Queue: 4 jobs
Job 1
Amino acid sequence: MEQPTNQTNTVVGGVDTHKDLHVAAVVDAQDHVLGTHCFPATRQGYRQMLQWMQSFGVLRQVGVESTGTYGAGLLRYLQAAGVEVLEVTTPDKHDRRRRGKDDDLDAQNAAHAAFARRRVVTPKTRDGMIESLRVLKACRKTAVAARKIALQVIQNTTVCAIGDRNRRLCRQVLRPRLSLSHRSTSERVCLRGAWATCNQSIRNHSTGPSA
């Protein structure tokens, strides 16, 4: 961790984000690295990081990696503090393989990218109507996938059911279950009752007679 220099300098920050710790770097107006330091990924850590960057001079902007995941909290904090934030995209894979994984270098590269405004994009905001639609779409997608898995499990249980009676009963219930939403209220009640009977029958057969 380097010591702060002239307070009137214009500096640019870069952050390599992780789950528990964020690594920050600062470059000066000539794109020379002034310092690198790590901070906890907490609100207090964000405050310490901002104070550390501003101790080198006037903070012009900060390049942050993964603003949609590990860097989301830091993004909101810096924007609330009035700091311009740029999302830094993934560095060149060939260069990453050549030099290996180094958090300090990743933070410095994020600062260099923000300084030169290359490999940067405007980070997405996590509020408003667009974010609400994104959450609803993600929830629906998850629910549809869970329903598909549940039906597959039921189908596998039907195939593996012991006895012709259980298999026949499960198939009679499973097929109309797929289009239950299009049936009348009385049909739904009957099908739900048959479904409960099927479950109880399989449960009784699996546990066997009580001793």
Job 2
Amino acid sequence: MRRKRFFIAPIILAALAVFGLITMLLWNSLMTEIFHLGYISFWQAIGLLILSRLLLGFSGPWGRHHDHGRSHIREKYAHMSPQEREEFRKKWHHRWVHDWPSCDEFKDDSTKQESSEDKKS
């Protein structure tokens, strides 16, 4: 186990150094030209990487996969009868489609306002 730690630690430090160097080079070449910001040092780039990880999370390069309870809904849906599934689909379709006004309703409202303004003139 100790051998594994001694092997992984230098790799992590090397990766941090490489990412810090890349961050520093990109900042100094892009941010100074685009936004007229000052140059940063290597240690400031490392600090920027650490700060971004603290603010954005330590979830890895692709982020964590959040299910938000969808697997429970899928499991429940799998055990439904065809009639229950159809009722479920109608309920969700009504909830997501009919609760929001359509573009046609907005157009109708705007034409009503225009016609009422024309009548006043």
Job 3
Amino acid sequence: MTTRMLSQTMSSPTSATSSLRGIIHVVDDDRAFRTAIGRLLTAAGHEPRLYSSAAEYLAAGDSQSPACVILDLRMPGITGLDLQHALAGRASQHPVIFLSGHGDIPSTVRAMQGGAMDFLTKPVATPTLLAAIKRALERDMQRHREVEHLGEIRARYDSLTPRERQVMCGVVAGRLNKQICWSLHAAERTIKTHRSRVMAKMKVRSVAELVRLAEELSASGVPLETWKD
């Protein structure tokens, strides 16, 4: 059964092969399938990393990008859906593609609601698989850029002194220098100096840019100062 399925599923990469290369984590308890898909992915220019179980994958390091995870649905022990749920809590979660011979509507719905990029059934055409991988790698690259961007913004915010954070909070809240100095019991010249330093450290040229960065920080879970008049 496995040999027949692989002969229909895995053909040589064609013009659908993407120029985008990445690490492809394959979690499937079928040894013959892992061997076949590993050869296919290598021929397509990717770096396959093969795991016989969800536990084996969870124990491995997978922080490198761009990357994606191809999961079987039914596996002994931790299932594909269980693994997807476990990965959802990781900061470095890679996009997930389900590739299974046991797909059904409830499982497909659960997988897609859990954030899966695609749910493909075996046998799958090589161009279809490689196209799904390309989309997943593109999303992972975007996620990686966003993580780096947020890390940079957090580093800028961490460089502010407690007073500078208070001033930033007032500026973001739309308060004038006079209002900020009155609320913080400080001289207006001092507030202007702090405000200038905030703009320089946060690497922004306008209040609108500062507000946008503050919104991004807040959305990512960074606790910001709350302005109180």
Job 4
Amino acid sequence: MLLAFIVPLAAGAVLPTVKTAKNTDLGTVLVSSTGRTLYHFTSDTRTKVKCTGACIAQWPPLLIRAGARPAAGPGISAAKLGTLRRADGGLQVTYNGMTLYRYLGDSKAGQANGEAVSDKWYAVSSAGKIVKPAATPAAGGGGLGSSGYTSPSSTTTTPGYDPGY
């Protein structure tokens, strides 16, 4: 059974399929037409969806009806919106080539409870990059010093940067 959220398209009305919203912890991220945070599964590629079967029960793909086009809302580049045909026949919305999903653990707009789940699921920025949460230093040191310098051996990740995209 395919559980998904299909964006309804009323006759003559065009709802934005994807828009942006400000998240307190992550900054500006992509959200659905109802304001729910959209995530990308980093195991997916530009041509192959890996979240299938039981995965989509927790992570419903953002789908549109055949023949429809995803609509860009405020803060979205229409040129970065696209679709990918899933093996199950669904037409999944993509942004900058990244598949988009909702997370059932988000019960209302503005939540981002799916962020960094299993180090595979991340919110997406309007620039079309995954958003990684800022690293928080452990108590007792580490992280950036007062000069803001991090040694070259540091593994600190810059929020919003993913070298894979």
